[in-house]
Amino acid sequence: MDTEIETVDTSTHVNEWAREPRGITAAELQQLQELLGTFSFVNGDSDKWKWHMHNNGLLSTIVFTCQLNEKLPSSNAYALPTARNKFLPQKVGIFIWRTKLKRLPVREELDKKCIDLDTLLCPVCSSKIEYVEHTLLTCPFAIDDWSQVRRWWGINSCSG
User: Fold this and answer.
1) Which residues contact 86 (CB under 8 A, 6 or more apart)?
2) What pTM value is reported for the model?
3) Whether pLDDT at 1 is above 50
């Protein structure tokens, strides 16, 4: 039985970029296109991902979280905050966890990952580099937001 092999043709693919890739991003795109040019499918085969950490090969959030919690001790800084804190919604716990690990998509962290940005300045105040502490605590707009939250909760202003 003969099988037909179909090569991926990247030359006909049209990219519509909001801004043309440049620098390291353009180089990585070129490498990816070269790799895809050598990739081929065998007709009749379906393209799918298979996860080998579970018997049925399907990836689900619950199974993934359980697997991670088994592998990582709870004292580990990278452990997921999934102890089901009854006082906080899960998304708040995950936000705090990502903040602690400096995994929020602020411009300083995106720049470290070589993501091409026009500027590293905070898009809200444009006065300092956007990093986690600035975004959540020291940006003039964050300071104003926190003072409104304190007023809403009836907490007096903290003085240092």
Assistant:
1) none
2) 0.48
3) no
Q: And the tokens for 153?
A: 């909760």
User: How many residues are recorded in the chain?
Assistant: 160
The domain spans of the chain are 5-42, 48-101, 118-160
DSSP structural state of residue 134 = I
How many C-alpha atoms does 28 have within 13 Å on its Cβ side? 9
* DSSP reduced 3-state for 129: strand
Residue 15: burial class (beta carbons within 10 Å; 0-12, 13-18, 19+): exposed
- As a whole number of angstroms, the distance between CA 106 and CA 88 comes to 24
Closest of 29, 32, 33 to residue 115, by C-alpha? 29
Q: What is the pLDDT of residues 46-80, one digit of tens each?
A: 666 666 666 776 667 777 777 766 766 555 555 55
Q: Hey, what are 17's tokens?
A: 């970029």
